[in-house]
Amino acid sequence: MKIVDKMKDEDLGVALIYNFTKGYQKAVPMEMYDIVLPLLYNDTFRNEILNHHSFHDCLLACASKDENFKENVLSALEDYKTMTSKALGIAMIQHILNFQIVDQTMCGLPLETHILELNEALKLGEMLQNLKYHDVKGMLKKNDKKIVILQSASVGYDVDLSRFESLGDVVMYEDTTQDQIRERIKDAHIVITNKNILNESVLKGMHQLQLICLFATGTNNIDLEYCRQQGIKVANVKGYSTDTVAQHTIALLMHLIEKNAMYDKYVKSKEYALSGRFSYFDEVFHDVSSLTWGIVGLGDIGRKVAFIATAMGAKIQYYSTSGQNATSDYQQVDFETLLKSSDIISIHAPLNEKTKYLFNEDALRKMKDNAYLINVGRGGIIEEKALVKVLNEGHLAGVGLDVFEHEPLLENDIIYSIQDMNKVILTPHIAWGSIEARQRCVDEVYENIMAFLNGINRNIVNL
User: Fold this and answer.
1) 407 catalytic per annotation
2) Same domain, yes or no: 310 and 387
3) Which terminus of the chain has a lower count of CB atoms within 10 Å, N or C?
């Protein structure tokens, strides 16, 4: 496609916008159309677009060829808005595009037409289909903020973190040990972490630091008061893993209560083939509908688990560790009652001064001998030394742990001294980590930073 100035009219705009819509491969939010003509009418961008796989890489190449590229495109955004509107109107009248409300947003969809395919416009659509309008504008703005990501591996290698590059100068580390933090963040304006401990001794003297973002909801690893005193804002993410953690809670319980691992082994070992019996019931399991399910922490995750457990027929009761979560939907009980009367207890509380070692030896012994205990909250809520002791004495029917006092576990961790490992299922802090939840987590952190750069407090926890 070769465009000269005299061809830059509404008819050409219609063709470009139509092909962009085809390349986008889904409904195009109306605001995204504003970027199409300013980019495709730019000679530098048009000459580079087919040479790159990502929009970000294409912008870098354009900026290296023309130091004023970004400024020129941004200024053209307003210049071409009228032409864009006219082109969209023509496209609608000529039945080239259809406009519909999708997810409460007016969007464009391509109709059948004979317009010539313009490869640059198709490619632009492909590049932008996973970006939002403010992502694109952010990439076009010059931002001198240095962003340091300390633990990129904590959200997995299959999650795309490249969009953070639109927000500033990004330095990314897969993981960072405690003694590496100060050197790595010494000139950072924004730090993104997950489980690194950022206390006064680490943060002292970090005069440029303005924002700490967490790939997590829990903030117990950050000295919030010191950050508040120093004017460092701290932002977490919420709600991104509710469904995922609830799902994993059910999975841990079902593994234990159904005895599936042992029955699976029985079949695969060919014992079943040699038994002469069509069924084998040596390992007893129960209907969840016959059991009382106690929930510790009735936040969003606790409520989701209660909803699922109710659908399974269980009787629900709960203990609020904060004393703030109350509902008439389920029976609220004190902690001792919950311990003594629950057949299943699942933990969905944060770790704080009220919940540290909430499940100590005394509490664990008050639970029924045949009760099940699931912890997807925080490791320090259960005193693991006490848990191992009561398990090895034959107390409790089964325990599912996704969180531990030490993460990762120590090579000689006390958890490994559990004598009957058939009574436990251990997973490496993954309850929150479906691919969908991890992407939501990253997207939320991005939105937190974007808001901060625009002077908006989003998910700031230490104001």
Assistant:
1) yes
2) yes
3) C
Query: For residue 376, what are the contacts with CB-CB under 8 A and spacing of at least 6?
Result: 245, 248, 249, 252, 301, 346, 347, 348, 402, 403, 431
Residue whose token pair is 């325990």: 399
> Per-residue pLDDT tens for 178-203?
999 999 999 999 999 999 999 999 99
Is 429 annotated in the active site?
A: yes
d(CA 111, CA 253): 50
Catalytic residue among 52, 286, 429, 458: 429
Q: Is 184 a catalytic residue?
A: no
Tens of pLDDT, residue by residue over 252-276, are 999 999 999 999 999 999 999 999 8
What distance in Å separates the CA atoms of residue 447 and residue 450, rounded to the nearest whole number?
Answer: 5
Question: Quick one: 135 and 151 in the same domain?
Answer: no
Nearest to 185, CA basis, from 194, 172, 195:
172
Note whether 134 and 180 are same-domain residues.
Answer: no
Query: How many residues would you count in the chain?
Result: 463
Among 378, 383, 405, 438, the one annotated catalytic: 378
Question: With a threshold of 0.70, does the pTM exceed it?
Answer: yes
Domain count, the chain: 3
